[in-house]
């Protein structure tokens, strides 16, 4: 390069530096740091109808004494568990037996592990239960509204029988809550169409089972329900949230009592054509759709007749056991959030979500309403956070004008978002 050319280049460079120093065109500014959470901060939004969280259980002495009223407790149960599997089930995060196989083992074989129990009224006597502090309640019946548990063939007889079970348990005055499980009555189509609210008024805690992923027959029953949304696929995670919302509607004040949703972990004793085992991805989606829809606990139906694995799928099937252990850890870690009141906020079109605040953060737990693809999510105005943490996925998303976008690859995909208030 000639000397004159070098002098011209140097002059141009100097002029450029002078211009940038005046116009501010240097290196792009660093993104604003994520502010620290203020633990007392909360969302100033109206609360949704809610059963009240763990404080609800303080009215039941045995439940309160066993830790059910703690914000860190979220019930994760096994349905009709085998006593000698209690330690193995506890290791994967199970907290409670919703019914115990009455195989001659004492109830202490379960409760001595720290597990809590809802004992079957028809199978366990007061003498067998005694004053065991960790037997927190009585399971009155299983699908009484369908005629099971000795409840009879017609709707009024079934209700009268359930009333007699409740009266028997209440008369013991032993500080234990009353619980019952329901099935087809949730559909509003044929079974107990006028008495489901009466059934729920008799108990302190309910649960519901409809194994939509694995049973084509269950799918047909769901689609026959007058409450099922037209065009929705029942063999989906959406169905597990739908049964929760249906159960909420049976309470005298919608959503005012806790309800658990049962989710199968194998092939739940099915022999019909097209029946199958649930996959780990479907299982996770079913559980989270139920929780997003308001379930206050999850109960796993582990009995399975899939020949590729054992009868007790949470113990015998390594893939299922590992998936549920991971899922239970995630739920337990989030228990203080799940035990905080949900607020009224519309997250976005084509989405199901629950919004909570806890410890200075907003939590948004979201799934689609059955579709897949990109969705835009709306946040309440005024949040200090400028990025959203996608919990458990090692990634963050930028917030622009109180909105952010994310992808849901499958109908069972879910994301848990956290942002500073």
Automatic annotation (TrEMBL):
Residues 1-32 form the signal peptide. Gene3D superfamilies: Glycosidases. Keywords: Signal. This is Glycosyl hydrolase catalytic core. It comes from Propionibacterium cyclohexanicum.
């Amino acid at each position: 390069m000639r000397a004159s050319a070098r002098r011209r280049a140097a002059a141009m460079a100097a002029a450029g530096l002078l211009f940038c120093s005046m116009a501010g065109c240097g290196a792009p500014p660093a993104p604003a740091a994520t502010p620290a959470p203020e633990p007392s901060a909360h969302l100033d939004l109206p609360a949704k109808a809610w059963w009240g969280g763990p404080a609800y259980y303080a009215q039941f002495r045995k439940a309160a004494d066993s830790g059910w009223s703690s914000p860190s407790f979220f019930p994760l149960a096994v349905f009709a568990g085998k006593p000698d599997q209690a330690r193995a089930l506890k290791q994967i995060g199970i907290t409670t037996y919703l019914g115990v196989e009455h195989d001659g083992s004492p109830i202490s074989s379960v409760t001595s592990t720290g597990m809590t129990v809802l004992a079957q009224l028809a199978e366990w006597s007061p003498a067998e239960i005694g004053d065991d502090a960790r037997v927190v309640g009585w399971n009155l019946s299983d699908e009484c509204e369908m005629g099971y548990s000795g409840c009879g063939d017609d709707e009024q007889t079934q209700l009268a029988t359930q009333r007699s079970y409740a009266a028997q348990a209440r008369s013991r005055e032993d500080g234990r809550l009353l619980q019952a499980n329901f099935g087809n009555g949730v559909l509003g189509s044929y079974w107990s169409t006028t008495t489901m609210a009466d059934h729920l008024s008799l108990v302190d805690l309910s649960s519901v089972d409809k194994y939509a992923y694995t049973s084509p027959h269950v799918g047909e029953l769901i689609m026959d329900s007058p409450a099922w949304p037209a065009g929705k696929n029942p063999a989906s995670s959406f169905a597990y949230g739908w049964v929760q919302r249906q159960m909420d509607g049976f309470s005298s004040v919608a959503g005012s009592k806790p309800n658990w949703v049962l989710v199968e972990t194998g092939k739940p004793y099915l022999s019909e054509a097209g029946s199958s085992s649930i996959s780990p991805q479907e299982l996770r989606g079913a559980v989270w759709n139920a929780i997003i829809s308001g379930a206050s606990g999850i109960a796993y139906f582990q009995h399975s007749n899939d020949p590729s694995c054992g009868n007790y799928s949470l113990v015998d099937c390594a893939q299922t056991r590992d998936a549920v252990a991971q899922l239970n850890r995630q739920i337990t870690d989030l228990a203080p959030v799940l035990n905080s009141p949900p607020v009224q906020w519309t997250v976005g079109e084509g989405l199901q979500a629950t919004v909570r605040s806890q410890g200075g953060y907003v939590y948004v737990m979201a799934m689609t309403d059955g579709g897949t693809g990109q969705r835009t999510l709306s946040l309440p105005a005024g949040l200090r956070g400028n990025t959203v943490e996608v919990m458990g996925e090692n990634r963050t998303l930028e917030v622009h004008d109180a909105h952010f976008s994310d992808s849901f690859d499958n109908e069972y995909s879910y994301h848990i978002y956290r942002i500073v208030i």
